Amino acid sequence: MRRRLACAAALLIAAPGCASAGGRTRARARPPAPIVLTPEDAEPSTSSGDEELSQGGERRGGLEYGLGGTTAAVSAALIVFGAVQLDRAVKLTTFCEGSPQSTECDALIGNPPVNYYVSGGLSLGFSTLIAVASGFLFRRAVRTQRAYRAWHSEQVSITPWMKMSRGTQASRAGGLSLELRF
């Protein structure tokens, strides 16, 4: 009786949705009108180019190098810690198989070898994420330093020039042109 009642309730709830989803009662949807963008409508791109990274020649990328080095050191420390924890887990597992009554094989919470495995795995997992972040920081530092050098190379330029004319009165001239931008 309960099964029939549940099926009847489900049929009453689902039937109106199934009937409206059929091909008879569904109205034809019009295809969306195409959107045309002209160059005047388009917004200027806000890409972060290298010239913005140095902030007008003020930043050299030293902060990014420092943070990248720090996160690389933390990542290396976590890799070493994780390897040590996994080594302890393997040694404790073999020790506990030989003498299961030892106090080192019992813990209030969990199983000590499993705890070492979990600790080592978490350390290695977090170290990979921190290493990726370190790589991104080093990449940004290099890009910032290149932008800094490019900005400063554009501020002062010395270009040689030479002018030679041919004809009845041949003349030659040359020199250096100095450009400064403020």
Unreliable stretches: none
- How many helices? The count is 4
Portion in helices: 55-70%
- Rg calculated over all Cα atoms: 36 Å
What is the ordering of alpha helices and beta strands? Answer: HHHHEE
| Percentage of residues in strands | 5-15%
- SSE-based structural type: mainly alpha
Distance between the termini: 90 Å
Query: Strand tally, please?
Result: 2
**Average pLDDT metric:** 79
Question: Any descriptors?
Answer:
single chain, 182 residues, mainly alpha, two-stranded antiparallel ribbon, 4 helices, 58% helix, 11% strand, flat
Task: Characterise this structure.
This protein starts with a helix and ends with a strand. It has helices spanning 2-21, 50-53, 62-98, 112-155; strands at residues 156-165, 171-180. The mean pLDDT is 79. Helix content is 58%, strand content 11%. The chain has a two-stranded antiparallel sheet. With 182 residues, it is mainly α. α3 packs antiparallel against α4. The radius of gyration is 36 Å and the shape is flat. The longest helix has 44 residues, at 112-155. It contains four helices and two strands; from the N terminus they run ααααββ. A hairpin with a 5-residue loop joins β1 (156-165) and β2.
